[in-house]
Amino acid sequence: MNYKVNGSDIVLIQRDFDLDETLDCGQAFRWERINKDSREAVSMSGIEFDKAYKGYRLNTPLLISQRKIGKNSDESQITLHNTSEGDFLEIWADYFDLETDYSALKREFSSDDTMSSACKFAPGIRMLKQDKWEALCSFIISQNNNIPRIKGIISRLCGHYGGFPSYDELAEESVESLAFLRAGFRAKYLIDAAKKLSEGELDLDDIASMDLESARKSLMTIKGVGPKVAECALLYGMYRTDAFPIDVWIKRVMAEYYPNGLPDCIKGKEGIAQQYLFHYIRNIEK
DNA sequence: TTCCAGGCGTATC
DNA sequence: GATACGCATGGA
Question: For A62-121, how does the pLDDT look when each residue is reduced to its tens digit (9 = 90+)?
Fold first, then answer.
């Protein structure tokens, strides 16, 4: 992994990484695109950028920007602002999955025509390796819900606690005390998940080490966690790339392109492929 | 007004 | 095991 430390910034040259496609594609809900005249942009000490986001992994904040290099290059300069080399190596390199070669991955996927189109449509998608608890909560909230409202609920949750609450904190709450979230019927599910973890009935590190089927079953003992949410918790929170969440959009993909099942070229990486397909089907028809 | 959103619990057959 | 329905909320 190639990077430069420039004062309090970390600078890398990357292909296969677009901030819009990765941070605003429905896998994480705490990233916000910032304007060029915002307070955050000014704090970047005059560094030029095409696009920039601020957000969090659990309770670590980050400001990240992207600038295309040259006219016809597919490379970008990615800058992580106001961070440290320690946080970069311990948190962000892992979070942004920088050790994975997405060019090679997309070549493999592209032996299938639909996957080839999906990869070309958004070549800068990467899987985010999110925190287990944050991902579980996020996708409990996601059920029968739309992305802007998911973001709103999570934003109110973090605003209330001054950061993402621990499961011990959430376990103390009640449906009434969580009314400010306006999460609807999902509030009781969050509380059930928090209680099971807080009381030690479940342990997300244990679940992460289980075989896929046992991990699914274990997660689904939480009220409000069914097949889809369990699959998302495994994929986004535990980087189980063989997990394949099927929501209304992926159902459309299956019906339209894969009536006879998924292609072999995504085997073992179905979850990553799913991210390209999800983005593709949601945006091509617009 | 009705429909829908990164589903799930429950009742019923 | 399959299918039908209700569920909180808010934007289109």
Answer: 999 999 998 878 899 999 999 999 999 999 999 999 999 999 999 999 999 999 999 999
C-alpha distance from residue A236 to each of A55, A130, A275 (Å)? 16, 6, 10
Architecture of domain A3-99: 2-Layer Sandwich (3.30)
**Strand B closer than 7 Å to the CB of A22?**
no
Those nucleotides of strand B lying less than 7 Å from any protein Cβ are 4-9
pTM score:
0.97
Residue A145 CA: distances (Å) to CA of A93, A136, A142, A228: 31, 15, 5, 13
**A4-6 sheet: strands from edge to edge:** A4-6, A9-14, A76-81, A60-68, A51-57, A32-33
pLDDT tens for each residue of A192-225: 999 999 999 999 999 999 999 999 999 999 999 9
Q: Which residues touch strand C (CB under 7 A)?
A: A 144-146, 148-149, 179, 182-185
A113-121 vs A102-109: helix crossing angle, rounded to 10: 140
- Domain boundaries in chain A? 3-99, 132-238
Of all nucleotides, the one whose C1′ comes closest to residue A271's CA is B6
Is there contact between A229 and strand B, defined as CB under 7 Å from any strand atom? yes
Is the CB of A230 less than 7 A from some atom of nucleic acid strand B?
yes
What does pLDDT average to over chain A?
Answer: 96
| Fold of the CATH domain A132-238 | Endonuclease III; domain 1 (1.10.340)
pLDDT band at A43; cut points 50, 70, 90: confident
CA distance A204 to A15: 33
Question: Which residue minimizes Cα–C1' distance to C9?
Answer: A184
